[in-house]
Hints:
mainly alpha, about 0% strand, flat
Amino acid sequence: MRVWKLLGLAGLAGVAATGAVLARGERQRRAATPEEVRARLRERHAALAEEEAPPPTAGELAAGRTHRLARLLRRR
């Protein structure tokens, strides 16, 4: 019985900690001005533009290797 109580308390502590982290992140996002957000987006776009990779060949796609679009989608 004691183990279940400890697991329950640990679960509640985990939920509370997750909520605190999410609330902190939301406060930081809301505090950013539109100009700051635009600047960050432009920086990310410039970094991706510098990273231009050649398009994969049909053989690479067939072999199961990920292509650039899949890498970009996985980052989000």
